[in-house]
Amino acid sequence: MELRTLGKQGPRVSAIGLGCMSLGIADTYTSSVQDEASAVRLIHRALDLGVTLLDTADIYGVSEPYVGKAIAGRRDSVVLATKFGFVSPRPGAGRGIDGSPQHAREACDASLRRLGVDHIDLYYLHRVDPAVPIEETVGAMADLVRAGKVRHIGLSEASAATIRRAHQVHPLAAVQTEFSLWSRDPEDDLLPTLRQLGIALVAYSPLGRGFLGGRFTKLDDLAPDDWRRNHPRFQGENFAKNLAVVERLQELAAKRGCTAAQLALAWLLSAHDDVIPIPGTSDLSRLEENVRAASFRLSRDDLAGIDRLSPKGVAAGQRYNPETLALVDQ
């Protein structure tokens, strides 16, 4: 497995990591892991395949305990990332954000307990809290580093301006954002800023929430309670338009001797040598398929061909609904 570096002084990690959201929230995805044994088996297989970066969050249900159980006895071979910031103010309420220093400290201690570890390798602020200056949040995260509870820190879905302010308080190792053939906005301002500052980009949803992998041909392929049913890119005419793009990518992938999912991951790895995708899955065969993408290298002609089939802005529909998009730092 190729290795890449998280920031200037961060750890070396596998070029492809594993997103663990679907291991802990049973009603989020159609094929979410339903039990601890299955989650542990999947993570062990990922580690055996050379994956070293595991990404979870305190809001992902039982994901942190599952990850902690899986890495017991293998802690030294794992770069463990988790996140804090999302809160539900009361039962049944929508998600809020709390980036206060007090919450940072309390959330970190709670994650350490759930994970069963004495330190977190990479601790992210899940979303920027507009009510708390980023300097205060990152200052508290820096205190966690000095206390030995955290090794490195990062932000998720933060703007270039916010990243610059945060980085002045304490060096960031990574910034996490959605990045794929469907969501190429990071190429505008974010990637240039990260490269100037020496910060890695960790790409979540690199397969367009499963769509780019060719998993869906109709909305009924999703379970009734799958949250993607309410996602703009899975709605009405958007679904049909996006499916047509995926079908073209599948044809190109077949010519290259790979799957559409592997082509989408190989595009990220080949076009950007400082980006680390973290596809999530609950299926062992999908995990192995994704990891094999690290062995594909695309030529300039391949990349140009993909750009023609899936140019920037090709995806029909916003990447989130308006309520969720409002939580993204612009």
Give the SSE map.
Elements: E1 3-5, E2 12-14, E3 18-19, H1 36-48, E4 53-55, H2 63-71, E5 79-84, E6 86-87, E7 96-97, H3 101-115, E8 120-125, H4 134-146, E9 150-156, H5 160-169, E10 174-178, H6 190-197, E11 200-204, H7 236-256, H8 260-271, E12 275-277, H9 284-292, H10 300-309, H11 322-325
Parallel strand pairs: 3-4, 4-5, 5-8, 8-9, 9-10, 10-11, 11-12
Antiparallel strand pairs: 1-2, 6-7
Beta-strand percent range = 5-15%
The tally of helices reads 11
Order of neighbouring strands in the sheet with most strands: 3-4-5-8-9-10-11-12
Which regions contain 5 or more consecutive residues with pLDDT less than 50? none
User: What is the string of helix and strand elements?
Assistant: EEEHEHEEEHEHEHEHEHHEHHH
Overall pLDDT metric: 90
Indicate the structural class: alpha/beta
Instruction: Please describe the biggest sheet, giving its number of strands, its sense, and whether it closes into a barrel.
Output: 8 strands, parallel
Describe this structure in words.
This protein is α/β, with parallel strands linked by helices and 330 residues long. It is built from eleven helices and twelve strands. The strands form three sheets. It has an eight-stranded parallel beta sheet with strand order 3-4-5-8-9-10-11-12. Strands 1-2 form a two-stranded antiparallel ribbon. A two-stranded antiparallel sheet has the order 6-7. α1 (36-48) packs across α2 and α5 (160-169) runs parallel beside α6. The longest helix is centred in the C-terminal third of the chain and has 21 residues, at 236-256. It starts with a strand and ends in a 5-residue tail after the last helix.
